[in-house]
């Protein structure tokens, strides 16, 4: 089984330094909700219907271009099984953002969301950015968790919400990019609002704005 | 969906899979650490550039970034919230979507925080203050796994480790780990050891799924060894406290550096936006300093054919702000005196470009050996940021009879790119000794800046008298000529580490009868580019005397406690040829000096290169 897993993961994280910064993202959720598939869809644009249970932890890297910056994402895929919990929670502290996933065809996985959220609160930093993702939305016929319930829970927990499908490649890219953006926002916030309002900022006409990075969404 | 796999086979595959991941992660983290080091080095340079310009001209009210003078009404500058320095409007960068701005350096600082992820570590520290900055879970896992393994190898383990052959099929990387005796402990130990790093798991740790509960724990508890967990707890604590060497092994990307003080950390840089240390008495420890030996640097020395190597280590101690060069040994040195097969080597260092005697450190002299062992640490008290502009020169010399010195070779290490955070670069290394570079400043006079002077020969009569003056009979002070010299100012002087000097000029006119007329300017405090505008007037000299005289102008940095003023550089004017070991006269200066003598009562401006 391990060899199957190994084969699924490529090994060219590469020594490429051609990026501006690195974000670490963790995907969590019950076993078999589609975390690994989701990551493979995003990183490799591939999908396998066969289920290969993830051993402990694994990761992939992907460099994206977002807001005029090259951002290297190290995306950690975790095993949902409790027996790996000690290992997986060890990775919570290093993550800037989380994708918390459930399976819209699996009630139990949805019920566990609250507990996963508690895990994040316990093991991660206070400003952890979380996106709630209801996966397998291609399986409309077998849906047991309505979009509305998903959205309500997300609101309740203060997370943003997406329904997605790793199989049909729905909202996969969007999920990651949105997560990157909210992390960027958090970053700007922590860097710039830490300073008290600047007093003597006389904005002369010669203000050197061209040095500021020219993008709309985040000041990073 | 949870599959029921037999525990034994699962453990082995799990172990392999997880270690694979840990190693892959380590590679990513190593790359990342390297990138971050590069970034921080660049920021350091930027800061240094800002700081260096302070030395160009010291001004009360100038922009901290570009040194532009700030006005009282217009362009008064404003204080940057980040660093509290006053900067001009050009040196501000406005942040997107805000009216807030930062100075160029703080802006870069912010960029670096983004790029290094330090913003995150700072935020995270609010919740986990003890968490190592770049310490990753993977590094910790590897570390704790290893610690656990070590522990098991010391204390006879229960149950005994499995046989080595179990990891036989693993990839080479895993074999490497296989040398740790505990390697074959199942991955459960890995989990257990991680568990000990964490606080008690919250209630939410309880199973959320239908997955089997702690399958890996079950057999243990049945075996009736509940103390296992605490045992491994102790193991880790002991190891940590004892600081055993395995922590230092380059296992994780960050963890090995933990024990040393990481040098290029963000906060260290930001806490010293402007260089603020000066050389102090502390710099004398651990090394011999020869004062007043500046001239020997320009003086004569022999050169042997350079052979051999020197072993030393370079470290920076953040706590004491000192650069430490640990000189260990040399081998295969050339004989200082080839015919007599004699060699009494010693090692000398400078932090170039400073070649003043205060910047010199020497080891003791070893007698009659070409394989000397020194084991001496030479120290410089210097801000880390300052080092970006410096090169470490380590040279080996033979001390012969009558203090005759023979150059045996040197190594020049540019410190700008030196990674003081890296353990590798802190360790001892052999460096091949090299001959002096062609244009080496040690064999040629050093350029220690320029001195601007204005000179005039004042004669009561016209130039005719000068031409008629008989050669060689110049002992006629009655002619009452005067040599007027205005020392205007100097620039590019070897400044102190705070970028300033308390400098003064000495003028010494040596007449043909070796009589010396000496004058001294007042001290100009806290200036890197002093403008003394001070007049030296040498009275009662005749043109013929002057043509056989020499005028030496030397610049000094006044010692704070008045012991030894530091020689900054000097220049010589005069037709007399160079004295051995003395300052040199450049041909251009010669021409200018001739002009002074041949055009009495007229001012001649000249720029003298200081050596
Ligand atoms: N129909 C459908 N199946 C999916 C989707 N994502 C994953 N799966 C399947 O669900 C099973 C578990 O997926 P996996 O990614 O291994 O789940 P993980 O345990 O959370 O990593 C596999 O058989 C996948 O093929 C999806 O979006 N749609
Ligand atoms: Mg998986
Ligand atoms: Zn400025
Ligand atoms: Zn500033």
Provide a descriptive summary of the structure in words:
- The complex is a heterodimer of chains A (220) and B (611).
- In chain A, a hairpin with a 2-residue loop joins β2 and β3.
- The N terminus and C terminus of chain A are likely disordered.
- Chain A is globular, with a radius of gyration of 19 Å.
- Chain A is an alpha/beta fold.
- Chain A has a six-stranded mixed sheet, sandwiched between helices.
- The longest helix of chain A is centred in the C-terminal third of the chain and has 21 residues.
- Chain A has seven helices and six strands; from the N terminus they run αβαββαβααβαβα.
- Chain A has a single domain, classed as Rossmann fold, CATH 3.40.50.300.
- By secondary structure, chain B is an alpha+beta fold.
- Among the domains of chain B are: 70 residues, Herpes Virus-1 (2-Layer Sandwich), CATH 3.30.40; 124 residues, C2 domain (Immunoglobulin-like, Sandwich); 136 residues, C2 domain (Immunoglobulin-like, Sandwich).
- Helix content of chain B is 28%, strand content 22%.
- Chain B has 15 helices and 21 strands.
- In chain B, the strands form six sheets. Chain B has a five-stranded mixed sheet, with no helix packed on it. In chain B, strands 10-7-6-13 form a four-stranded antiparallel sheet, with no helix packed on it.
- In chain B, α1 packs across α4.
- Chain B: It holds the Pfam family C2.
- Chain B: Keywords: Membrane, Repeat.
């Amino acid at each position: 089984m391990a060899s199957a897993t190994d084969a699924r993961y490529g090994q060219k994280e590469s020594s490429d330094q051609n990026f501006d910064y690195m974000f670490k993202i963790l995907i969590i959720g019950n076993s078999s909700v589609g975390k690994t598939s989701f990551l493979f869809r995003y990183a490799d644009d591939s999908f396998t219907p066969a289920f290969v249970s993830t051993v402990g932890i694994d990761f992939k890297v992907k460099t994206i271009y977002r807001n005029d910056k090259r951002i290297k994402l190290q995306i950690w895929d975790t095993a949902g099984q409790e027996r790996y919990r000690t290992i997986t929670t060890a990775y919570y502290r290093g993550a800037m953002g989380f994708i918390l996933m459930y399976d819209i065809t699996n009630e139990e996985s949805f019920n566990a969301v609250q507990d996963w959220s508690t895990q994040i609160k316990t093991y991660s930093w206070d400003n952890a950015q979380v996106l709630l993702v209801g996966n397998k939305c291609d399986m409309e016929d077998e849906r047991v968790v309505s979009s509305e319930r998903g959205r309500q829970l997300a609101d309740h927990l203060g997370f943003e919400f997406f329904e997605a499908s790793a199989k049909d490649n729905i909202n996969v890219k969007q999920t990651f990019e949105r997560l990157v953006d909210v992390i960027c926002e958090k970053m700007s916030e922590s860097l710039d609002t830490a300073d008290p309002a600047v007093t003597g900022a006389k904005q002369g006409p010669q203000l050197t704005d061209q040095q500021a990075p020219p993008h709309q969404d985040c000041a990073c | 969906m949870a599959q029921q796999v037999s525990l034994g086979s699962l453990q082995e595959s799990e172990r392999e899979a997880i270690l694979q991941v840990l190693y892959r992660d380590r590679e990513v983290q190593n790359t990342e650490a390297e990138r971050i080091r590069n970034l921080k080095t660049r920021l350091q340079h930027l800061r240094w550039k800002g700081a260096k310009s302070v030395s160009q001209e010291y001004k009360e009210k100038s922009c901290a970034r570009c040194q532009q003078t700030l006005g009282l009404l217009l362009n008064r500058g404003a204080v940057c919230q980040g660093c509290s320095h006053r900067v001009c409007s050009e040196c501000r960068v406005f942040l997107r979507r805000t009216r807030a701005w930062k100075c160029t350096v703080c802006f870069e600082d912010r960029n670096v925080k983004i790029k290094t992820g330090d913003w995150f570590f700072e935020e995270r520290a609010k919740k986990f203050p003890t968490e190592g900055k770049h310490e990753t879970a993977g590094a910790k896992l590897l570390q704790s796994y290893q610690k656990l393994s070590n522990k098991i190898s010391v204390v006879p383990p229960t149950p005994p480790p499995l046989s080595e052959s179990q990891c036989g099929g693993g990839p080479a990387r895993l074999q490497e780990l296989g040398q740790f005796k505990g390697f074959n402990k199942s991955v459960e130990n890995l989990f257990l050891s991680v568990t000990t790093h964490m606080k008690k798991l919250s209630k939410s740790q309880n199973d959320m799924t239908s997955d089997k509960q702690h399958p890996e724990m079950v057999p243990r508890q049945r075996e009736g060894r509940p103390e296992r967990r605490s045992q491994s707890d102790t193991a880790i604590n002991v190891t940590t406290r004892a600081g055993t060497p395995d922590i230092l092994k380059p296992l994780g990307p960050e963890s090995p550096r933990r024990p040393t003080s990481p040098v290029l950390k963000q906060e260290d840089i930001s806490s010293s936006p402007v260089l603020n240390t000066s050389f102090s008495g502390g710099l004398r420890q651990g090394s011999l300093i020869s004062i007043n030996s500046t001239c020997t640097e320009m003086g004569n020395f022999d050169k042997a054919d350079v052979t051999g190597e020197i072993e030393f280590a370079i470290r920076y101690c953040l706590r004491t702000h000192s650069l430490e060069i640990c000189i260990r040994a040399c081998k295969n040195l050339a004989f200082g005196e080839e015919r007599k097969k004699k060699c009494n080597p010693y090692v000398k260092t400078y932090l170039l470009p400073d070649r003043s005697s205060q910047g010199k450190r020497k080891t003791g002299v070893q007698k009659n050996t070409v394989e000397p062992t020194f084991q001496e640490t030479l120290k410089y008290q210097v801000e880390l940021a300052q080092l970006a502009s410096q090169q470490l020169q380590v040279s080996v010399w033979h001390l012969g009879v009558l203090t005759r010195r023979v150059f045996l070779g040197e190594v020049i290490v540019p410190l700008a790119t030196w990674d003081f955070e890296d353990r590798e670069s802190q360790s001892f290394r052999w460096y091949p000794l090299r001959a002096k570079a062609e244009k080496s400043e040690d064999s040629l006079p050093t350029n220690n800046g320029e001195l601007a002077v204005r000179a005039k020969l004042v004669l009561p009569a016209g130039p005719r008298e000068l031409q008629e003056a008989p050669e060689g009979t110049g002992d006629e002070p009655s002619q009452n000529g005067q040599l007027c010299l205005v020392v205007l100012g100097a620039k590019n002087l070897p400044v102190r580490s705070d970028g300033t000097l308390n400098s003064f000029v000495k003028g010494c006119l040596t007449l043909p009868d070796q009589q010396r007329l000496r004058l001294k300017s007042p001290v100009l405090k806290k200036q890197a580019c002093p403008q003394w505008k001070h007049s030296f007037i040498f009275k009662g000299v005749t043109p013929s005397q002057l043509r056989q005289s020499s005028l030496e102008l030397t610049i000094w940095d006044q010692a704070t406690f008045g012991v030894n003023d530091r020689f900054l550089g000097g220049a010589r004017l005069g037709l007399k040829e160079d004295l051995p070991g003395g300052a040199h006269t450049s041909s251009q200066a010669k021409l200018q000096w001739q002009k002074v003598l041949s055009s009495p009562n007229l001012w001649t401006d000249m720029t003298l290169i200081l050596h």
